[in-house]
Amino acid sequence: MPRTLFEKIWDTHIVKTIDNGPSVLYIDRHFIHEVTSPQAFTGLNQRGIRVLRPQQTIATADHNVPTLNQHLPIKEELSRLQVEALKKNCAEHGIELYGLGHPFQGIVHVIGPELGITQPGMTIVCGDSHTSTHGAFGSIAFGIGTSEVEMVFASQCLLQNKPKLMRITIDGSLQKGVVSKDIVLHILSVITASGATGYAVEFAGSAIRALSMEARMTICNMSIEMGGRCGLIAPDEITFNYIKGRTFAPQGEAWDKEMARWQTLYSDADAVFDKEVFIKGEDIEPMITYGTNPGMGIGISQLIPTTETVNEQDKSGLARSLAYMGLEAGTSIRGQKIDYVFIGSCTNSRIEDLRMVASFVKGKKKAADVEVWIVPGSKQVEAQAIAEGIDKIFEEAGFQLRQPGCSACLGMNEDKIPAGKYCISTSNRNFEGRQGAGARTLLASPLTAAAAAVTGVVTDVRELMLNNN
């Protein structure tokens, strides 16, 4: 019987199926960080039990860490307490921790892939919604709640209902200046921020197959923003070449054995999906959001929607979002003044993202009244950027290269956007107050963010690229 990629992985991880209920699903990798793990450890300790398989759990500090002066004590008390609790709990339960000062420290969804821990065919969970990032390798990866973190600690299993299956196919070639972040923001604008609710989403098509692994991670990272349970992409030679030789990747005979299995991980030709979506790559232009959820995005040349152009149920939401954002319906977003540019987060903080920005801004200067934060996703990304001289390009442009962490993606650390200020961000969420109380967030690609950094306003990056030629 033909099966989808998701079904092939799901079926091999079922420990037990409960009649008319969920399945007990075995979990291969469990990532943890300082925010959602303390309560789960407390639950274990209160029951007097240990983490069942600590060698399958990987910990790092990312959400609450500062991105300047990481050698100094953390200033914010709650952040400091959470990071200290993570250290204590990992030591007591024998879990490997990549904490501040460790060469592998970084954002949890950046370090897993770059270390070769994330591999095709796995089930991967973390107490963080953007665990879907790891699905770019052809794995089932999803975020879980604190009680579920405790469940995995105790049993290495989870109770899960099988989601419905959706395939989003993007065929064709992309315009100049259009990158993976634009693809996923375009998808969101088409199907909305709730369009994949209840589904596991497989991304397919020639435009997806042409992407690098880091670009694919950006796509799967934001599958959760569509309401999806997870997102995944079938592994191929690009996947295998990325993994090979990484710190924790299989080697020798083990590599050959895994490769034989990984090469079976694809949706069969006659596999059936509950829903199919088709998009032409040529139709996608540089994207930017104007509202307060990631589905409220437009092509850079388009006008902000009016109440006449949206359906009845979205009218009140549009009015509220535009009031919060200080933007006007029916107008162009180009030329909107920007105060901050944040390039980072688990969506766009990998070395390819930094290289893309450095290539674009080389020889340019940031606008005088814009503050630009570049936050690498890990110590390894930071080290590579320095080795390649990317840090010098940023310094000459007036950009600040900070230290690894989640940073201004969310208001849980010192990197917050002031109330009322506009920030073009390469992160994944533009909710009210997400980057700080009253902050106004415009989601965009690293290229579009870089264009705003040098012009000081929302800009169509294609125009600057044209002028460079």
How many structural domains does the protein architecture include? 2
How far from one another are the termini?
A: 53 Å
The level of helicity is 25-40%
Uncertain spans? none
CATH topology of the largest domain: Aconitase, domain 3
Rg, please? 21 Å
Strand order of the largest sheet: 5-4-3-6-7
Tell me the strand percentage band.
15-25%
Secondary structure tally: strands: 19
CATH superfamily membership of the largest domain, which one?
A: Aconitase, domain 3
The helix count comes to 16
Provide the structure class: alpha/beta
CATH class type of the largest domain = Alpha Beta
Mean pLDDT: 96
The CATH architecture of the largest domain is: 2-Layer Sandwich
Shape: globular
Labels describing this entry:
five-stranded parallel beta sheet; 2 domains; alpha/beta; 469 residues; 16 helices
Written account of the structure:
The protein has 16 helices and 19 strands. With 469 residues, it is an alpha/beta fold. The chain folds into two domains: 5-277, Aconitase, domain 3 (2-Layer Sandwich); 290-468, Aconitase, domain 3 (2-Layer Sandwich). Strands 5-4-3-6-7 form a five-stranded parallel sheet. Helix 12 links the parallel strand 15 and strand 16. The longest helix has 17 residues, at 77-93. The radius of gyration is 21 Å and the shape is globular. The chain starts with a helix and ends with a helix.
Question: What is the topological layout?
Answer:
Layout lengths: L4 H7 L2 E4 L5 E4 L2 E4 L5 H10 L9 E4 L16 H17 L2 E3 L9 H7 L8 E4 L13 E4 L2 H10 L1 E4 L3 E8 L8 H12 L7 E6 L1 H4 L3 H9 L8 E3 L4 H7 L9 H10 L12 E6 L6 E3 L7 E3 L12 H14 L14 E4 L7 H11 L9 E4 L4 H9 L2 H8 L2 E2 L20 E4 L14 E4 L2 H10 L5 H8 L1
Parallel strand pairs: 3-4, 3-6, 4-5, 6-7, 9-10, 9-12, 10-11, 15-16, 15-18, 16-17, 18-19
Antiparallel strand pairs: 1-2, 2-8, 13-14
Helix pairs in contact: 2-5, 6-8, 12-14, 12-15
